[in-house]
Structure prediction request, 1136 residues.
Amino acid sequence: MSEIVFLIQSEDSKGLLAGISSFFYEQGFNILSCEQHTDLPTNRYFMRVALDVEDLSYSSEALERQFAELAEPLGLEWSVHYPNEVARVAVLVSKASHCLYDILAKQSEGVIECEIPLVISNHPDLESVAQRFDIPFRHLPVSRETKAEQEAEILNLLRENAIDLVVLARYMQILSPAFLRAFDKPIINIHHAFLPAFQGANPYRRAYDRGVKIIGATAHYVTEDLDEGPIIDQDVARVSHRCGPEDMKRMGRDVESVVLSRALKAHLERKVIVFANKTVVFSV
Amino acid sequence: MSEIVFLIQSEDSKGLLAGISSFFYEQGFNILSCEQHTDLPTNRYFMRVALDVEDLSYSSEALERQFAELAEPLGLEWSVHYPNEVARVAVLVSKASHCLYDILAKQSEGVIECEIPLVISNHPDLESVAQRFDIPFRHLPVSRETKAEQEAEILNLLRENAIDLVVLARYMQILSPAFLRAFDKPIINIHHAFLPAFQGANPYRRAYDRGVKIIGATAHYVTEDLDEGPIIDQDVARVSHRCGPEDMKRMGRDVESVVLSRALKAHLERKVIVFANKTVVFSV
Amino acid sequence: MSEIVFLIQSEDSKGLLAGISSFFYEQGFNILSCEQHTDLPTNRYFMRVALDVEDLSYSSEALERQFAELAEPLGLEWSVHYPNEVARVAVLVSKASHCLYDILAKQSEGVIECEIPLVISNHPDLESVAQRFDIPFRHLPVSRETKAEQEAEILNLLRENAIDLVVLARYMQILSPAFLRAFDKPIINIHHAFLPAFQGANPYRRAYDRGVKIIGATAHYVTEDLDEGPIIDQDVARVSHRCGPEDMKRMGRDVESVVLSRALKAHLERKVIVFANKTVVFSV
Amino acid sequence: MSEIVFLIQSEDSKGLLAGISSFFYEQGFNILSCEQHTDLPTNRYFMRVALDVEDLSYSSEALERQFAELAEPLGLEWSVHYPNEVARVAVLVSKASHCLYDILAKQSEGVIECEIPLVISNHPDLESVAQRFDIPFRHLPVSRETKAEQEAEILNLLRENAIDLVVLARYMQILSPAFLRAFDKPIINIHHAFLPAFQGANPYRRAYDRGVKIIGATAHYVTEDLDEGPIIDQDVARVSHRCGPEDMKRMGRDVESVVLSRALKAHLERKVIVFANKTVVFSV
Prediction:
């Protein structure tokens, strides 16, 4: 990855694509890829532009200053991301190890590009998994009484470690609105159901009780409304009457792992824009 | 199909398989296929046995009498189905034609084995579709005021035509509890969402608003609780931020058609047992 | 659909997106959607631009003349398609009716937008299907001896009916290279296997013999190399040891129908560009 | 798992199910699950019976002796597996780590029940992965000249470690016929293509060159015919024109891991019978 990525959104109007692409052309950039989307009901325009970093002939500050001059009159909201930025990710877990294993393996193989300086859990069980990948593990137990205190400790750890993104890899606690407001950076959760079906606790048990023939998993950004944040990715697996709740849980593991790591990868590669509690997920 | 099919359920106990299979062996039958399932939480045993009709050396009444003697002490609930029984199916529709086309095409090709003597709709739009397949079409418009009357007309038509099964192929009306109790035969509905997500009206609109990445369809038996009857089959299709509600509706068509015709086929081939608001769907 | 669509390809170079999008902006067009792709190994650039036809303030000839002036120095290969162009499609079949039903139903519902003035078959079986949709059916039997003659008759019919596209909807004959050269317009075929597996005859039989656990279907443009033309779409269905060749054939029907109609729809909506025996299939 | 599993096959004949199930009933067993399959073209009968080990009131030798008395006159081929048997599995790898990580994580979590006393590789790269799970790693480099020698070393290690099953988890070497005959126990391979498409080397490259829209992976037993052994499981992932060979390789990783571990799990749970270069894979 040697790409500079611009993520842009604004009200839609004639000439946005021409104006923006001409700007990059005039600045000497080769556009490696460019993808647009217009949300018709809201007349909203979304754009992801990837530039060859080799074409950057001046400072990044100068690039941003120049782009700001284009962006302001057009009313563009935008962010720019450079190839040397590597996100620092904390993974929060409880007892289930499969998503943690999948993320750590993919990170160690370079498939998911980020740093993972910290695994936090409310249970001690997965310490050995973190150790296997030489990642510091912090056990912060929590009870109803100690929740505020525990979240304060988590927050401190996230700040000390300069964490950019939190991944809830089957962390079975609900983060408080106060925590979410204090952290104020993206948090990705994997819910072990096909949202909006089976929001909340025990989705496999409830899927079994309802007699569904397909189970699913949903990766979404965490908001104050439990399981109602913007969905990044979903996938499913077929089940039958033969599957009890424990079978579903076991069969759901691979779906959960795959969906969570796909969502994490899309986020880290700057392919996701959130708007109106939904996501635009670019394919290039 | 030259199979005699027994569908059996009972409390689970040792020796059921031995007892039942030995009975058929002693009566001279070759067991073409046999599938069992035990639901552990309820200790319930389910079985589907397919016999070669060529091996039936006496009358079907005698077979049933003999089997009843075995079944009574074991507490078996059972039904038997002969190859010459062809179910008579009525299809209820509104304006969307895709499920109707799919069922009529598959029936005319022999993929779905049944008779379809009747298509009923609350709108006139699909009359030409039924005519294309030479099937009588009855237009029975309905309003809040005329609902009881219209349902009485439907019921009369179902009875006059000796209908065994009703298929709601995108019939956009809710059948009243009174109707369901009066008809008292199975009704299969296709819901254009991945139940239990988006029960009720406008599921594609709500799927769009929620920003899901996968849409689905669910075929289920109709009960008095709207969209909460036993699920027979489900399937899904991937969507993206590019899909508006109309795109989802269009993309959902194939999923709806396929799921409904799979469920209908399974039902007609005597592969479905309902228990505790869920289904056992045998694979052979 | 009130879109003017430009399909463009050329060698990749800096400034293509800026140049082309600026051209349309200067001509007063709102770009409804725009999608690009660069094939890195061949350094080839592909683009699909959809414009609002309401913005066309002069003649289409003038638009094309102006665009040609831009295109020539840049070395663009391009075509333009207007909303009032409706493709005329001929469907060739043999005995299997499912793909024909699916296409005719979708066309009659407006899901697939084209005219279908002609169904041709080497067997009489499907005449009633065509009649159900009031489409002329021509039975042109073929044997090894009469092949050249039969193909000449087909060619005449295609020309008389001003056919733009031929769809082989389970037409079980191989069209000769001479025919393909003489017709010289696109032909889409559905192959009942997951190409390049099981090229040629009897794919379900061979899939069964090989013991595969998944079967598939492939829609592709026809070239002189049997089953080796550019693939437009593929899909699969899960099978098991329980499925004999006839079961696979039956289960494959829905996959074949869905894949063929998706490919046909993509082609008709000007979303497909062929290059190097492969396809770029745009999503918008 | 506290099940005794019988895997049985024979020529099909009337009374097999009655005879076998009655035997187990008379011996006092509760049949936990029972699944049958008849392959009609070959008239072959397959059966998997799971018994509650608690019901074993005498020695396993006695059980086998008694069953042999039933089996001999009926011509049954059979094997029996007890819950205390834990298979010893060696994993062979080269440089790609994803399948190895997946197997080791699932084994350490108890999802895949076996012992893994040994990882062997022709490259040193994955030593750290094995170490993370405290599993001995042996680096046995191989060249054309040293192949016989290296395979002899592998064979020694397999024997010293009493290995029951070898898993080729992206081991990029072809095992010689001599090795296969000498080892004479099952070997499961993951091929990174949807067999029989793209047998042999570089399947992703060739899939890219062919322009397929779906890629796949195949787990199969190894035989002397490269990539032609009995298929246990397959799965696929959708790709597009945007995917180069490296993207396909990356996207194929999850499919490979999931298919291989599903196949391994089915094998270890005694759900697979091989016959006529195909597999019967029982679902219970």
Q: What stands out?
A: Chain D has eight helices and 13 strands.
